[in-house]
Amino acid sequence: MRITQNRRSWAWPYVLFMVLLVVLPLLLIGYYAFTDPQGGFTLRNFLQFFHKQEAINTFIYSLAIALITTIICLLLGYPAAYIMAMRSFRTPAVMAILFILPMWINFLLRTIATVELFHMFGLPLGEGALLFGMVYDFLPFMIYPIYNTLQKMDLSLIEAAKDLGARPKEVFTKVILPLSVPGIYSGIVMVFMPTVSTFAISELLTHNKITLFGSLIQRSFGEGGIAMWNYGAALSLIMLIIIGMTSFFGNNDTEDINR
What we know:
Blueprint: H1 2-10, H2 12-33, H3 44-51, H4 53-85, H5 93-100, H6 107-120, H7 127-151, H8 155-163, H9 168-179, H10 181-197, H11 200-206, H12 213-222, H13 226-258
Helix pairs in contact: 2-13, 3-13, 4-7, 4-10, 6-11, 7-10, 7-11, 8-9, 10-13, 12-13
């Protein structure tokens, strides 16, 4: 009984962390989103967003950029994770280190370095540079969840499929790919969520020529004035709801596949 109580006491630091850095900020966002500058309840902040066609177009464009980035990361990341995980390839540990090394550097420094790289080769900054920077920054977050899932996979299942006459293509599509779905889903979430809300990468790699939804939120809080804080909180809440719904339905689909 005492051991159980002691273990429960270990959870208090994490509870305090969640309350101060997760629950309390979310409550503040909800408060500002549903209030006016005088503190009264209002839905004007949300109506302001839906009445601004530019804001809606920016939100849709941000979702499109995030989706394209996620797809590119998946197409590049899955083969890399597969090669790293399959023991038959005898891949050296150097390959894993090469993907980890960029993550040791702050992403702002990596983005600034990307800008200088485009300047060095005389390439224009714009949508192409934005996608390149997004993929460069978030590709490791796609690789490692898939790699961990594939690495933990029971290789006897692959051997059994081969013994039953399955060809390499059938082994991959009917055994390896379905078992790697949880890793794919985790990678998609870890790439899609931050790319929807980012603003620094787009501002640096496009010289503020392209505005993403995260930039709208940042400008709302940065311009000053409680009215803009209320509008920025409403934008943040809209983004959180959309991302939360995406994660919820995606998680249900993953559970159905696993069953």
